[in-house]
Amino acid sequence: MASDPGSDTVLWSDEQTRFVLQLRIEEELKGNVKNKVLHETARKTIADKFYDTYGVRHPWIKFRNKFNSCKKQYGAMKRLTHNRTGLGYHPDGSIDMSDDWWEQRCKEWPGARKYKDKPVANADLMKQIFSGVHESGAEGWSAQQGENELDNMEVENDDAASEARQTNPPARHTNPEPDAPSSSNGPRVSNAPRASTVPKPSRKRRAEQAAYVMRSSLQSRDDILSHKNHLIESHPDLSCSQLKAMSVLHSLSSIRMWSPLYKAAYKHLREAATNRQTFLSYEDDENKIIYLEEETGESRYA
DNA sequence: AGAGATATACATATGGACGG
DNA sequence: CCGTCCATATGTATATCTCT
């Protein structure tokens, strides 16, 4: 039952959709998404930034609904592209193939026609969010995260997971925590500190202490996340455009992580907003890479 | 009529609380 | 410590409404 949708309908433009998808990716890069669950800070940030940009404040359910519909569209994209090779794509990630190819797809699945007539825009961002492969999560974490969120991040890509283990610096725990048990993914992993050797006070007393510590931890965690976001967003060298630029840089498959070109590109993009804007202005990956090679003097093959 | 946006119901996953 | 319960959030399917 739609409750009076007429007065409350959000008409999403491709631009607005892209904006919120980028915001969600940024929050993931900042480590504010845990097991696909957006932290309250992330939701607030997305809603606030959308309000700042478009002057409209939506309740979170609107964004959630939009993400749902995006995932539906992405699912259709996957259905069209699954196990197919030689596919061409538009810069926004939508399918760029011949009419013959589309006719074949429509024969297999009549539902494909609407995606031929109206390509799924922003499919590139949808892939990053919904594919379950966090191409740059480890780096995003290591650069910006001060907590142990990575342990909980969903990393379905084995390579990415092993890379994360190899490249992550030792976690600087905000709250002292005992070492994780060997079964780190067990059904019961409590954040409540478990004193191992101290004499046991009463259950009630322990519960009170644990509750106090947890409240304090949660409060400090929220404060830290909020403060961290504020710093990230206000600091000129860590502006959102840099996050976007880094996200795009990580998506360039021709540039190996930590290769000379990657390092030089990272430095170049960090230096100035105009560098990032110029980089992002190129619509296709090849021109982005050529731009970085020109600006840095490094080759992708080095 | 069909597409898009939204609400709702149900299933599922996760993590904390609680009691034995 | 462990099993169970509960709260919360997501995913999916479906229905309704508006607009083109």
From TrEMBL:
Domain of life where this protein originates: Eukaryota
InterPro entries the UniProt entry points to: LIMYB, Myb/SANT-like_dom
Signal sequence range: none
Database matches in Pfam families: Myb_DNA-bind_3
Region (Disordered), start-end ranges: 155-210
Domain Myb/SANT-like: 12-103
PANTHER family according to UniProt: L10-INTERACTING MYB DOMAIN-CONTAINING PROTEIN-LIKE (PTHR47584:SF14), PTHR47584
Protein name: Myb/SANT-like domain-containing protein
Organism of derivation: Brassica carinata (Ethiopian mustard)
